[in-house]
Amino acid sequence: MTSRKAALPSLLVSMLVCAAAPAAAELRHRQTLDGIRGVSLAYDAQLCGTWVATEGPTLSLYSPGGREILSIDSGFSSVRSLTVEEDGLLLADGWGRFRRIDRTGRPRDETFSLSDRIRDTEGLHRDADGSFLVVEDDPSRLLRLSPDGAVLMELWGDGFDPPMVEPQGVERDPYSGNILVVDDNEGRNALFELSPDGAVLSVTPLSEWGRDAEGVALQPETGTLFIGFDGGVRLSIFDWRPSGMSIDTPLDHGPACAYS
Predict the structure, then answer these.
(1) If residue 4 lies in a helix (H) or strand (E), which one and from where to where?
(2) How far apart are the C-alpha atoms of 206 and 7, rounded to whole Å?
(3) Which domains does the chain have, with CATH numbers?
(4) Which of 72, 85, 130, 162 has the most CB atoms around its CB within 10 Å?
(5) pLDDT class for 23, splitting at 50, 70, 90?
(6) φ/ψ of residue 96, rounded to 5
(7) How far does the signal peptide extend, from start to end residue (predicted)?
(8) What is the DSSP pairing of strand 58-62 with strand 49-53?
(9) Contacts 24+ apart (CB under 8 A), 130-134
(10) pLDDT, tens digit (0-9, with 9 covering 90-100), for 129-157
């Protein structure tokens, strides 16, 4: 499988040739796994897999090709969103409570509040600098929080063009720097691609592959994108390329893992 590092020069040439045309992200469907309710997804470079939360206590890890690698008990009665950290996972129950566990499910600390500014956490992503991207749907907003929970950026969904009504999952592409957010059926059932400061770069409809998009995760080396759909209970796998580059130097994204 061709790595994204090798593909970047051709992507840049293509962008220069087509500079006058409106940019569009590329999303090519690879396969769909039925029976998996992926309400939150997070790519784990250390294990070369994507964690899937189903809004219950169990977390499962899938390879980029869709094979289940392992399953653990989170210790939470319900996991609404999750993200990967160096020493394990950070979980949110959607009611303001957070917990850190290791990759076997053992707790790393007590339940805590990440920030008094968030509660209805639908999507969570830890960035390379230790800050967090958070999406909530009541009200609809995208936030960036410092490691200690201070609000660094707050953008309201109805201020986007087009509006983002029900954001559910959030991810960062470390190569382009762009932010990926899925909007569910109460909104556009679409994948929003945003610049680092929140400008809308592209919106890709998802209804061809599933209803009620809930979670999103990216394996950066290969551009393998996972999207979880609540309607139909399915997990779809895509090849994805950004509409353009927002940064000059890729962000740190952990160990290389460019196989499926």
Answers:
(1) helix 4-17
(2) 25
(3) 25-241 (2.120.10.30)
(4) 72
(5) low
(6) 95, -5
(7) 1-19
(8) antiparallel
(9) 132/83, 133/170, 133/172, 133/179, 134/170
(10) 999 999 999 899 999 999 999 999 999 99
